[in-house]
Design brief:
Helices cover about 5% and strands about 40% of the residues. The chain has 1 helix and 13 strands. The chain is elongated, with a radius of gyration of 18 Å. The model has no long low-confidence stretch (mean pLDDT about 85).
């Protein structure tokens, strides 16, 4: 038996690579790009074009001690899960009704954040947290569906551990 590597589809969209794999009846490999900064790293646009024309799946590792907040979307719904580590998810409305929940390995589940709600995340504990999230609209660099404000701009919301 001869073992060969799959065809690499570097310049094709995932949907195009999918069609190519079906046409040649062979597996293909589509490299992912990594976005990294001092807060962690992300693989963006996973499954773009396969799930439909709008949505995308992303994976991000959020480093310990990091706060990524606040932002909101006019159209996009976010579906967040944390299979490794733990995150504190914060959400609030303009009327300052606020929610928070810690999700992760010991409290698994998916947080659904509909449009117009401000939201953010911080890591809980000494290890990085891995987030997998589906968003209903692909990120548009030229015209992002995103509004931002400072992480400490919501009076009374604490991103750190609350000692009780």
């Amino acid at each position: 038996m001869k073992i060969i590597k799959p065809t690499i589809c570097k310049d094709k969209s995932l949907a195009e690579a999918h069609e190519h794999a079906k046409a040649i009846n062979e597996p293909v490999f589509v490299p992912m790009s990594v976005f990294a900064d001092d807060r962690g790293w992300s693989h963006m646009n996973l499954m773009k074009g396969v799930l439909g024309p709008e949505g995308q799946i992303n994976i991000s590792e959020v480093y310990p001690g990091t706060i990524k907040a606040w932002h909101r979307h006019k159209f996009q719904t976010d579906f967040w899960m944390c299979p490794k580590g733990h995150i504190k998810v914060g959400v609030f409305r303009d009327d300052f009704t606020a929610w928070q929940i810690v999700v992760g390995e010991k409290n698994p589940g998916i947080v659904i954040i509909p449009p117009t709600l401000w939201h953010g995340v911080s890591t809980v504990g000494p290890q990085s947290a891995l987030m997998i999230y589906y968003v209903t609209h692909s990120y548009n660099v030229q015209n992002p569906d995103e509004e931002r404000r400072a992480f400490d701009s919501v009076e009374g919301f604490h991103w750190g551990v609350e000692h009780k």
